[in-house]
# Entry
Amino acid sequence: MAAAVLASIGVGVYALTDDDGGRSTATSQQPGGRDDGRNDGRDAPEEGAPDREGDEPRRVESGAVTDSLSGISLPVPDGWYGEELQVGAALTSKESYDCPGDTSKTCVKGGAYSAPAVVLGTRGDTAEEVAKADISANAEESYGGESYGRITSHDVLASKAVTVAGQKGYLVRWKAVTQKGSDGFVQSLAFPSPDRPDQIVVVRFGVDTDQQQKILDEITEGIEVAEGGRGNGQDV
# Structure
Protein backbone atom coordinates (compact mmCIF):
# COMPACT_ATOMS: atom_id res chain seq x y z
CA MET A 1 0.00 0.00 0.00
CA ALA A 2 1.07 3.09 -0.23
CA ALA A 3 0.84 3.08 3.02
CA ALA A 4 2.35 0.38 2.80
CA VAL A 5 4.26 -1.28 5.26
CA LEU A 6 2.47 -3.43 7.70
CA ALA A 7 3.66 -2.29 10.86
CA SER A 8 2.38 -2.11 14.17
CA ILE A 9 0.44 0.58 12.87
CA GLY A 10 -2.18 2.05 12.30
CA VAL A 11 -1.67 4.59 7.61
CA GLY A 12 -2.28 1.25 8.62
CA VAL A 13 -0.41 2.14 6.21
CA TYR A 14 2.12 3.15 8.60
CA ALA A 15 3.87 1.89 11.55
CA LEU A 16 5.74 4.31 13.63
CA THR A 17 8.41 4.16 16.27
CA ASP A 18 8.32 6.08 19.50
CA ASP A 19 11.07 8.31 20.84
CA ASP A 20 12.74 5.37 22.55
CA GLY A 21 12.83 3.33 19.37
CA GLY A 22 9.99 1.08 20.46
CA ARG A 23 7.22 0.04 18.14
CA SER A 24 4.01 1.95 18.06
CA THR A 25 1.14 1.91 15.69
CA ALA A 26 -0.05 4.78 13.87
CA THR A 27 -1.44 4.05 10.69
CA SER A 28 -2.68 2.12 8.02
CA GLN A 29 0.17 1.56 5.83
CA GLN A 30 -0.13 0.54 8.07
CA PRO A 31 -1.50 0.19 8.66
CA GLY A 32 -1.04 -9.22 10.35
CA GLY A 33 2.20 -9.44 9.67
CA ARG A 34 4.32 -6.72 11.06
CA ASP A 35 7.65 -5.52 9.86
CA ASP A 36 10.36 -4.05 11.99
CA GLY A 37 7.97 -1.35 13.14
CA ARG A 38 9.37 1.42 11.00
CA ASN A 39 7.37 3.65 8.77
CA ASP A 40 7.10 2.30 5.25
CA GLY A 41 10.35 0.47 5.56
CA ARG A 42 12.43 3.55 6.15
CA ASP A 43 15.15 3.70 8.74
CA ALA A 44 13.39 6.32 10.83
CA PRO A 45 9.84 7.60 11.36
CA GLU A 46 8.65 10.93 10.12
CA GLU A 47 9.42 13.75 12.51
CA GLY A 48 6.32 14.67 14.43
CA ALA A 49 4.49 11.50 13.42
CA PRO A 50 1.80 10.34 15.85
CA ASP A 51 2.62 7.55 18.25
CA ARG A 52 1.04 5.65 21.07
CA GLU A 53 2.01 4.03 24.33
CA GLY A 54 0.90 0.98 26.25
CA ASP A 55 -0.78 -2.13 24.90
CA GLU A 56 -1.54 -2.80 21.27
CA PRO A 57 -4.78 -1.11 20.18
CA ARG A 58 -7.91 -3.19 19.80
CA ARG A 59 -8.76 -4.11 16.22
CA VAL A 60 -12.16 -3.06 14.92
CA GLU A 61 -13.27 -5.40 12.14
CA SER A 62 -16.41 -3.56 10.98
CA GLY A 63 -18.49 -0.45 11.52
CA ALA A 64 -16.31 2.50 12.48
CA VAL A 65 -13.24 3.31 14.56
CA THR A 66 -13.12 6.39 16.76
CA ASP A 67 -10.51 9.14 16.86
CA SER A 68 -11.33 10.43 20.32
CA LEU A 69 -8.81 13.25 20.18
CA SER A 70 -10.44 14.81 17.12
CA GLY A 71 -14.03 13.78 17.88
CA ILE A 72 -14.57 11.84 14.65
CA SER A 73 -15.10 8.27 13.51
CA LEU A 74 -13.66 6.62 10.40
CA PRO A 75 -15.65 3.91 8.58
CA VAL A 76 -14.01 0.48 8.32
CA PRO A 77 -14.32 -0.77 4.70
CA ASP A 78 -14.84 -4.43 3.86
CA GLY A 79 -11.53 -6.24 3.97
CA TRP A 80 -9.95 -3.66 6.26
CA TYR A 81 -9.67 -3.21 10.02
CA GLY A 82 -9.46 -0.14 12.26
CA GLU A 83 -7.52 0.78 15.39
CA GLU A 84 -7.97 3.68 17.79
CA LEU A 85 -4.59 5.17 18.63
CA GLN A 86 -3.38 7.38 21.43
CA VAL A 87 -3.24 10.15 18.85
CA GLY A 88 -5.79 9.59 16.09
CA ALA A 89 -7.14 6.44 14.47
CA ALA A 90 -6.01 4.13 11.68
CA LEU A 91 -7.49 1.94 8.96
CA THR A 92 -5.51 -0.88 7.31
CA SER A 93 -6.19 -3.25 4.46
CA LYS A 94 -5.96 -6.92 5.44
CA GLU A 95 -4.41 -7.77 2.06
CA SER A 96 -0.61 -7.81 2.27
CA TYR A 97 2.42 -8.75 0.16
CA ASP A 98 6.20 -8.62 0.19
CA CYS A 99 7.35 -5.05 -0.41
CA PRO A 100 8.79 -4.84 -3.94
CA GLY A 101 11.75 -2.73 -2.91
CA ASP A 102 12.61 -4.78 0.17
CA THR A 103 11.05 -8.25 0.25
CA SER A 104 12.03 -8.73 3.89
CA LYS A 105 9.29 -6.27 4.78
CA THR A 106 5.53 -6.56 4.39
CA CYS A 107 3.39 -4.02 2.58
CA VAL A 108 -0.40 -3.71 2.58
CA LYS A 109 -2.79 -2.73 -0.18
CA GLY A 110 -4.03 0.39 1.56
CA GLY A 111 -4.23 2.40 4.73
CA ALA A 112 -5.36 5.66 6.24
CA TYR A 113 -4.90 7.43 9.52
CA SER A 114 -6.02 10.62 11.22
CA ALA A 115 -3.97 12.99 13.36
CA PRO A 116 -3.89 16.70 14.19
CA ALA A 117 -1.93 18.72 11.64
CA VAL A 118 0.27 20.06 14.41
CA VAL A 119 1.33 16.52 15.34
CA LEU A 120 2.30 15.76 11.76
CA GLY A 121 4.17 19.05 11.52
CA THR A 122 2.00 20.19 8.60
CA ARG A 123 1.62 23.95 8.49
CA GLY A 124 -1.26 26.09 7.30
CA ASP A 125 -4.01 28.30 8.65
CA THR A 126 -6.85 26.83 6.58
CA ALA A 127 -7.89 23.33 5.58
CA GLU A 128 -6.89 24.05 1.99
CA GLU A 129 -3.44 25.26 2.99
CA VAL A 130 -2.89 22.23 5.23
CA ALA A 131 -4.04 19.67 2.63
CA LYS A 132 -1.85 21.18 -0.07
CA ALA A 133 1.12 21.35 2.28
CA ASP A 134 0.68 17.77 3.48
CA ILE A 135 0.31 15.81 0.23
CA SER A 136 4.00 15.63 -0.65
CA ALA A 137 5.01 14.28 2.77
CA ASN A 138 2.10 11.86 2.63
CA ALA A 139 3.19 10.53 -0.77
CA GLU A 140 6.75 10.02 0.42
CA GLU A 141 5.59 8.35 3.63
CA SER A 142 3.24 6.05 1.77
CA TYR A 143 5.23 5.10 -1.33
CA GLY A 144 8.74 6.49 -1.12
CA GLY A 145 11.83 5.01 0.47
CA GLU A 146 13.01 1.41 0.46
CA SER A 147 9.60 -0.23 0.17
CA TYR A 148 8.81 1.04 -3.33
CA GLY A 149 11.91 2.91 -4.37
CA ARG A 150 11.69 6.60 -5.03
CA ILE A 151 8.60 8.31 -6.43
CA THR A 152 9.47 9.13 -10.03
CA SER A 153 6.48 11.36 -10.82
CA HIS A 154 2.92 12.17 -9.79
CA ASP A 155 -0.35 13.26 -11.33
CA VAL A 156 -2.81 15.53 -9.50
CA LEU A 157 -6.17 13.78 -9.64
CA ALA A 158 -8.18 16.12 -7.41
CA SER A 159 -7.84 19.32 -5.42
CA LYS A 160 -11.19 20.45 -4.08
CA ALA A 161 -13.31 21.63 -1.18
CA VAL A 162 -15.34 19.01 0.69
CA THR A 163 -17.54 18.88 3.77
CA VAL A 164 -16.44 16.31 6.33
CA ALA A 165 -18.29 15.63 9.59
CA GLY A 166 -20.12 18.91 9.09
CA GLN A 167 -16.88 20.88 8.67
CA LYS A 168 -15.63 22.69 5.59
CA GLY A 169 -12.51 20.85 4.52
CA TYR A 170 -10.25 20.29 1.55
CA LEU A 171 -8.66 17.28 -0.12
CA VAL A 172 -5.75 16.79 -2.50
CA ARG A 173 -5.33 13.46 -4.30
CA TRP A 174 -2.33 12.29 -6.32
CA LYS A 175 -1.38 9.24 -8.30
CA ALA A 176 2.20 8.52 -7.28
CA VAL A 177 4.38 6.62 -9.77
CA THR A 178 7.02 4.53 -8.04
CA GLN A 179 10.36 3.15 -9.16
CA LYS A 180 9.57 -0.38 -8.00
CA GLY A 181 6.30 -2.23 -7.67
CA SER A 182 2.84 -0.81 -7.29
CA ASP A 183 1.94 2.79 -7.98
CA GLY A 184 -0.42 4.36 -5.49
CA PHE A 185 -3.24 6.80 -4.90
CA VAL A 186 -2.42 9.16 -2.04
CA GLN A 187 -4.80 11.66 -0.50
CA SER A 188 -4.45 14.31 2.17
CA LEU A 189 -7.78 15.41 3.66
CA ALA A 190 -7.89 18.33 6.09
CA PHE A 191 -10.77 19.83 8.06
CA PRO A 192 -11.41 21.49 11.44
CA SER A 193 -12.08 19.12 14.33
CA PRO A 194 -15.78 19.11 15.25
CA ASP A 195 -14.73 19.19 18.90
CA ARG A 196 -11.98 21.78 18.53
CA PRO A 197 -12.64 24.08 15.55
CA ASP A 198 -9.27 25.77 15.96
CA GLN A 199 -7.51 22.42 15.45
CA ILE A 200 -7.18 21.09 11.90
CA VAL A 201 -7.36 17.32 11.49
CA VAL A 202 -5.48 15.56 8.70
CA VAL A 203 -6.43 12.16 7.32
CA ARG A 204 -3.65 10.65 5.22
CA PHE A 205 -4.54 7.91 2.73
CA GLY A 206 -2.38 5.56 0.68
CA VAL A 207 -3.89 2.90 -1.57
CA ASP A 208 -2.36 0.76 -4.33
CA THR A 209 -3.79 1.67 -7.72
CA ASP A 210 -5.27 -1.79 -8.25
CA GLN A 211 -7.69 -0.96 -5.40
CA GLN A 212 -9.35 1.90 -7.32
CA GLN A 213 -10.08 5.41 -6.11
CA LYS A 214 -13.58 4.62 -4.87
CA ILE A 215 -12.19 3.34 -1.57
CA LEU A 216 -10.85 6.84 -0.90
CA ASP A 217 -14.28 8.30 -1.57
CA GLU A 218 -15.98 5.68 0.60
CA ILE A 219 -13.83 6.50 3.60
CA THR A 220 -13.99 10.27 3.05
CA GLU A 221 -17.77 10.25 2.76
CA GLY A 222 -18.14 8.01 5.82
CA ILE A 223 -16.24 10.18 8.30
CA GLU A 224 -18.65 11.41 10.97
CA VAL A 225 -18.74 13.22 14.27
CA ALA A 226 -18.00 10.55 16.87
CA GLU A 227 -21.16 11.26 18.86
CA GLY A 228 -23.45 10.63 15.93
CA GLY A 229 -22.42 12.95 13.17
CA ARG A 230 -23.34 16.31 11.79
CA GLY A 231 -22.89 15.19 8.24
CA ASN A 232 -20.90 12.94 5.93
CA GLY A 233 -18.05 13.97 3.66
CA GLN A 234 -19.27 15.52 0.42
CA ASP A 235 -18.39 18.23 -2.04
CA VAL A 236 -19.02 21.73 -0.73
Notes: Helices lie at 117-120, 127-143, 214-222. Residues 2-53, 228-233 have pLDDT under 50 and may be disordered.
